[in-house]
Every structure is written in C-alpha cells, then in structure tokens.
C-alpha cells in the first residue's frame, strides 16, 4: 500500500513538472468585432520554459468564413525571418506588432479591414519540445452611413404620410432613434411607438407636427445621423391647379397649331413662286428684231403663192405688194445714172403655179 502511494505521488510530480516546463500561450480564445476600414489587433502572447531549446517558429493561419476555402497561412516567422506574402488578399495588410518575437509576443495587426477578412485566425507557436495554439474569431462590420431622411407623402393638414430614415449601408442589427430638435422638444404622443423604428406613420397631420427632426442609426461599430424639416401646410387648391394645367395645355396646343399653319402657308408661297418663275422661263419666247419680222412676213406671202390660182394671182400680187410695210425693207442705195433693175418673179413652175412678172417702176413712177 505504501508502495502504491509512492508511485502515485511520483506520477503527480512528473506531470506537474512537465506542465510547467512546456510552452504556453497566455492569450485566451476570444471574439473580436471591428468596423470595415479599421485595424484589428489579434493578440497572441506566449511563455517559454528552460526546456524549450529548439528554434522558434510562429505561424498564423486563417480559416475563411466561406467553408469551401481551405486554411491559408497569412504570415510566418521561421529562422529569424518573417514571411508575409503567402496570402494575396492580405498581402501588405498583416504585420507582427513586436519587433522582438522571442520576447514572447506573436500578436499581429490586420489593417484596412475588408468584409473578406471575416474568419477564424489561429496562432501557432512552436519551440521544441513545446507547442501551443490559440484561436480568435474576427468579425468585420460596416458602420451605418449615408443616412437619408425624407417625407413620403403630401405634407398637408389632415393628410396621412410617413417619415422615413434609410441608411445606405450598415451591418445588422441596426437601432433607430428619432428626436425633435425644434419647437417643443417632444415627439407627438401618437408617434412614441415608432420612435425606435425606421418609419414613423403620421395620421391626420396638423400644424403642431411641423419642425426639425433627427434620426440616429447605430450598430455595434458605429452610428450616423440625418435630419429633415417637416412643414405641415393647409391643403392646396387642387381644382385651381387642375384648371390652370388644362388652360396651359390648351394654350400650348393653340400655339403649336399657329406655328404649323404659318409653316405650311410659307411653304405654299415658296412653291407658288418657284412654279411661276419656271413658267416664265419655259413658255415665253424672246422678242424678235424688226428685220426678222419683215423676212418672216415676206416668206409667208411667197409660200402662199403656190396655192393661188392664175385667175386671182394678179390681184393677190398687187394686194400683197401694197401691204408689205415699207419700213421693214432695207433697200440698197443705187446710182442715179443707172436704170433701175427689173425685179424678176420667182420661178413658180417648181411650186406648181403660173409664173408672174412683178412690174418695175421708172423714175417718173410709170410701170415698165
């Protein structure tokens, strides 16, 4: 029995000595929440024992929130050198916080946080024969931002409308708080149930509701605020507004009709002027000279002789001869000593008519 007690005592001493001589990480497992764009500090502090004589190795791994992705080494210390280019998504954004890792501080900073940085980070420290590891859950949240306050409806007495508060982005859960900043600093009693919600429903509005209101949106990593001005006014004259709109439309139609009429009228006038100008150039021949008129007149008389019978040729010749305008002839000046030349009648035999001699006059006017 005494022998058994001695063995148990020896075992306890052995186990206690082994425990105290092993490497241990003093930082507990924990969860950290940070806002997007901020820097996350991930602690990992350890202690060594005299028995830990091997080379010091420190390794940080990331288990992404997406379970389909495998664990990734994000930074490593080995052989007195740091390697931080294993994981492209964190390259240049992960650093050891201590310049002397052998002092027992393997903590890191992750800067400019992104939503893709969400996951479980594991710190592993090894110095043979001691080995230790700890896990830290990192959650990246988005602060409320881009808050927009507005009135949904007509701000008139007796109307129903809504006051709305909408953030552009922000991680859930979000908390809302409405406040009145002007006039009486209290919200209307009917609004109290909605003062913690993003929408306030206003029923049968009155002028006492007018004022400046603020809405504050908050989550675990930040908050943002917006303001709106509510001005409840008497109902507008809708009938007058509608009548004015109708009159305006009619006037616009009349004006459009006048413009179209004027354009068509101008187009018809231009078309008429072009047609008249074209007719003048194509249908009206140029005026003829006096000489060409006389030749045409004589030529027409000669051409008509062929259709005359011998019985009336003499009378017709005399008549036509006397009808020729004297001013249309261009007589060749003759010498006074030479006898006048006899004018020979044209050869009418070729034209199917009897030849006729046209008498000539002497100086005293007698016919030769």
Automatic annotation (TrEMBL):
CDD domains: IgV_CAR_like (cd20960), TM_EGFR-like (cd12087). It is found in: Basolateral cell membrane; Cell junction, Adherens junction; Cell junction, Tight junction. The chain crosses the membrane at residues 242-263. Residues 21-139, 144-231 form the Ig-like domain. It comes from the Eukaryota. Residues 1-22 form the signal peptide. Residues 272-346 are annotated as: Disordered. It is a single-pass type I membrane protein. PANTHER family: COXSACKIEVIRUS AND ADENOVIRUS RECEPTOR, COXSACKIEVIRUS AND ADENOVIRUS RECEPTOR-RELATED. This is CXADR Ig-like cell adhesion molecule.
